[in-house]
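Re: the request from the purification team.
They wanted to know what the chain is likely to look like in 3D before they choose a buffer screen. I agreed to run a prediction and write the result into the notebook, where they can find it.
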Amino acid sequence: MDYTVAMQRAIALAEKGLGKTAPNPIVGAVIIDAAGNVVGEGFHDRAKSADHAEVVAIKATGSKTNGATIVVTLEPCNHTGSTGPCVQAIIDAGITTVVYAVADPNENAAGGADTLRTAGITVIAGVLEEEAAFANRAWLMKIKKNRPFFTWKVATTLDAKVAATDGTSKWITNETSRADVQLLRRQADAILVGTNTVITDDPHLIPRGSFDGYAAHPIRVICGEQVLPKAAHVFDDAARTIVVKSKDLDLLVEKLNELGINHVFVEAGPTLGSAMLDACLLDELVVYQAPSLLGSGKTFFTFDYPSTISNQMLLDHISTDVLAGDVKSVYRIRNGE
């Protein structure tokens, strides 16, 4: 049987968990019967339950799991944490085939496929692996590098200016772009800015608009040494706010790890953003580019040392969309890889 369509659905389900699962991965699961009909599905959502996606799907399927196939975006876990191992739940449910996309790189939870095979269950690995890994890239990066995945968002003119010479920056991009940013905020576990952004712009850093199914807003994180106004919007009760009163990026990462953060949405200005890029901490760049020119002003990225064309930083293009005239482009930052 071709499990591509079922895995596509499982990936879409997993993405419903963005911003809801940290420190756990996003995972989606679909259960199908022998005729290929979907009889149950689910995704991990810590706000609703500690149950992993496989268990959510099994419970949704009820008595129809015996002899069924479960299609899941991540290899079922093989350890006991806040819940029991998913492999045991699958075995107990009478499921006879397990199809997964990405092998679990977490040493504490890996080995699920071998356990399932030992129990006589057919295991098929690697279906839509690249697509599922991209959706779950934040958690996979955290496991690989022991730090969160950082996405830097920049709103700029065609000549790469993020502010005019008088310091004004609202609004460079249009309402459609700004609405898209709210979705990216919502799907992150934390929103990061520097102290200068708080002092200059007084942002609220709360996703605007209606987002069903979210119990809490992302954690607001401020990094830097400047004294912050006590009346700043980021200190209200709308979300938790953490201040890392230091320019030490290692200390910042340590604090984010303590919080169990998977994905950080960076809305910092040129100083902090460039420092993070120079320190190989940024993994993804999202640029919203307005069809306008300033000619002078503040550019979004700069290093303090001379460069040559031969050592330019090359990025991998992921996607480009036109948003009511603005251009949104997403790039992967290689970080020496």
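For the purification team: The longest helix spans residues 4-15.
Please add any questions underneath this entry.
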